[in-house]
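Re: the multi-chain job from yesterday

Posting the exact lines I submitted so nobody has to dig through the queue logs.
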Amino acid sequence: MVPAGYYLVLSAILFGLGIVAFVFKRNIITIFMSIELMLNAVNLAFVTFSQVLGKLDGQVFVLFVIVVAAAEAAVGLGIIILIARHRQSLNVERMDLMKF
Amino acid sequence: MFPPREEFLRVLPILIFCGGGTLLMLLQPFLRSRTAFSLLALAGSLTAVVSVGCSAAHPGAAFYGLIGSDPASVFFEFLVGAVAFLVILGSASYLERESLAPAEFYALIFFAAAGMCVLASAREMLTAFIGLEMSSISSYILAGYRRESPKAAESALKYFLLGSFATAFFLYGIALLYGSTGTTVIAQMTPLAPGLLPKLGLALLLIGLSFKVAAAPFQLWTPDVYEGAPTPVTALFSAGPKAATFALLLRIFVEMPLAAGEWTRIFWILAVITMFAGNLGALLQTNVKRILAYSSIAHAGYILVAFAASNEIGVAAVLFYLLAYAAAKLGAFSVVAHLGGAGEKRIELDDFAGLAQRQPIAAAAFSLFLLSLLGIPVTAGFFGKFYIFKAALASHLIGLAVLLGVNSVIAAYYYLRLIIVMYMREPKEETAALPFPGAVTTVLALCALATVYFGLFPNHIIAFASNPRLFGH
Amino acid sequence: MLILNHLWIIPLLPLLGAAINGLSGLFGAKWPNKAVTAVAIGSTGLSFLAALECVREFLNLPAAQQALPWVKQYFTWIAAGTFRAGFDLQIDHLTIVMLLVVTGVGWLIHIYATGYMSHEGGYYRFFSYLNLFMFFMLILVMAANYVLLFVGWEGVGLASYLLIGFYFLKKSASDAGKKAFIVNRIGDFGFMLGMFLLFRTFGSLDFVTVFDKTRELPADALGQFGILTISCLLLFMGATGKSAQLPLYVWLPDAMEGPTPVSALIHAATMVTAGVYVVARSHILFTHAPTAMLVVASVGAATAFFAATIGLVQTDIKKILAYSTVSQLGYMFLACGVGAFSAGIFHLMTHAFFKALLFLAAGSVIHAMGGEQEVTRMGGLSGKIRWTYFTMLMGTLAIAGAPGFAGFFSKDAILFSAFQHAPGGRILYAVGLASALMTAFYMFRLIFLTFHGKPRFDEHHVHVHESPKSMLGPLVVLALLSIIGGWMAAPSFWGGTDHFTAFLAPVFGAEAAPEAATAAVSEAAEHSLELTLAGVAVATAFLGFFLAFWLYLRRPGVADQIAKSAKGAYTTLLNKYYVDELYAAVIIRPLVWISDNVLWRAVDASGIDGAVNGAAAGTTALGDRLRRAHSGNTRSYAVWVVIGALLILAVIFWPMLKPAAGMVP
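And the result, structure tokens for all chains:
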């Protein structure tokens, strides 16, 4: 059996990749997906801890997170469509009407 | 296994907000009249405020200890409820002017308020997360509610992307804490084994929450989002989520055993950066909404000073400060919301020139709120700052207190500049006065009343907030 | 015991008046002026009645109880740790005097103002401010601790600022308001430091506690700068700002831009005497700090002399009175400085009568002349506005110190105390006497130029008319008070007894009796000394009168010739010693230079030029840097979030990286 630590490291790597993708990607959809990646990294951590602690609640938390992420995705995609209509673009670099 | 009746009474405000929001959504296809929705929303939010008394009368935990009612949660539920009520009262005329649909708007405010109440009364981290997301997701939509405005859309996008980004940190923090303590109930979180994990978890938690309260360097989204969002929503953002998030932070650092100690340094640093970021940033702004946004960053910094002090006066100071700040900010944004005119085009500093001659009440009320934000005596803001100073000195954070003083001086510059513009400068062009509708005037009057009342009699709140069982079980 | 138990009623009444008038005007419901008048006069009148009743009740208390201040604690205002500052009001004999002066004279001036302001815009606003002023002034004199006193102190400053700038569309008026505001902030800074020092020393700011503890302390020796001396000097710094003493007097003459009733009430009778009140109220502190006392006396005497010289050549009727006010306030400080606190308060009271009268009469003259304020363009008015003339003459006799008038007794008491004062008393006396001479001169010069001689204005264009009854009534009452107001303290050689000093004895007690210092002098010798000094004073007053009479009535050309032959001195006086210019050169211009050259960016960006600019160059530059961080780019914001996250992690794990440092306790 693979030790729990490996899963945790994987989860941390995924979370880190999510951060990096958020910072370096330009397309809003990709950025949004990087957030999903971060959330799923968290889910992995929850499941691992649930396994280690021998408690089931960690797995229930994952369901919660998935539900919330779904709600977030629904709203987020709505906002992205709104932006696409206004700007005819999904490049986040260009979303700087308000600054300084 | 159905929970007993009191448990529902303990969370009655949350239930009313959720139920009210749902009802408004359901009625949307059937009711045409704006007034009907406004009245319904007002009645609903008022009921919620009143029902806080009910949750106060039944202190204790509910739903297997996930959530509960104690003096602190009662205070914050009341604050959030009152903010929601005042925002709704002030936004009816705004929605009509901008021809925005009322039903969803009010419903979203209800959901956001419900989320904030959950955040303030949660005793378990995942419940807090749900509360945070309820308020955040509704907020994302509200920020972009003026759909035809590109700025509003951009504001919603930025808020959504960065907000979700920060939420991920928060959630990862919860996961790590869960893993290292075996529980998510705040008061039971003791590390199973010594190590880095709990500290790391707490740090990530703090990162997520710092973003929500707009502490530097997580504050950069604030001015953009505040500027683009409809102004009544901005008022809600600046008063509501901030208070609820600070409530959760307080609860974590008062209740959670492993959070004790050694955090002073972090709060010290955050407070200093945040105060300077807010106040220095505001200096060069010319857009009134942005000035107020930067000022709300600075105020988060002042509140963090009380966290750094981490003593009993500090806790009381946070509660009092949030109340004073909510009254002043809500009032100030209500003035701006109305004077901005159609499409919110008139919110530059120059547009406020000569306001005192055109609309003396508006100018006087706005000045009062600004003075309260600045912390001049006889306004609630003064005592807010005073108790924070007191808390900082009580913990011998002399340097921090001095920096707080320096920041108050810097802040004086831009608050007084606004007042000077209103009173001393001639308008560039002839501007017609925009008489205030009765509802907005009522909001201003209530906010002004609260500002002056708590500026004269701060003791009730301080006595309430000094309750040793503020975060009871 | 109704009022005595509910002292808050007295200040609350004017506050209610202010609120009603202010709100009615603000909320668009334009009240008729009559309603505004009724509210304004009614509230202050009731407050005066309440004060009278309060005095009656207090004087009916047993003597032992009267010896202590009657303190009522209403609610705790600020409580933090050991520190408590409450909304505590107190009544004692000193407060009674101030209370009656403030409410009584205030009420009369309110009545006058209903006539004076009847044609002005913003009628409700004016009375709302004026009532607000009354509220804060009453808080100031009734406060039982320094914190509440400071609230009143700042409040009257605010009201004064609002009223000076009442004609806010006039640039000079709003400038004058700003000047008053800034100069007073300098003084207030000292006052606040003084309060902090007192709190650090005594752990409380309640009068009773502070004074009781002071009594147990040894006095600082002369020339020694102990805690008490420094506290007193800081408090006095506040007093120089509020009471327009050297070097902070510059705002008061400019404050004459406000409506005349304001000049009478705030800038002559009440607010400007707040500094004197504070010194008298803190007399126990001051008597324990002889160095501070000497400073108070010297500043007072110097101001009295200095302002009087400027008053000699001014031509604006209100400016003359303004400098005269500065000079008379100097007298009051002189009295306090030589330990004759009751004489100082006595002069405060008589001055309130006659200076309010003079200002109101001047207002009546200005009203009659249709807004003219230059005495050089008046003349020959005595026949046309008889009531005004007669009452103003009474005021002039009183201030000049004509025997039997109020000013005679109070000024005499001050000069007598100064003469007897141990170090440097004779010098102070001489300076005071010289100022008295000049006072008599410039006041009669004012009378002669205004009311006598030939009219120097175009009689076809200016229709001189007597003022309405609402204005004349207060004039007559005040004239009466200017005559009889001093009789209660007639000196013994005059056949009277000093009731006033006896009345204040429970407050000032032994500390205030200058006679104690000269117990060796026999009573008879003292009488003759007092008589001699009184004689000298009368002679001086007469000399001043005669000089004015000769120069301005008999030989009208001579005054101009003198002015020409002593051109340098004359222009120096006319330009008020160039003090404003000096301040401009030394303080204001460098500040403006800095803000122009260093803060140019902030000024440029915002377009605000005149605003007092505390933010220095570094601040602005930093602000600009910071602004760049808000690039509007979501990704860069995210980078900052990551940087912040790393920062937090670094701070938390820093101790672990250096285990050695962490382990060592």
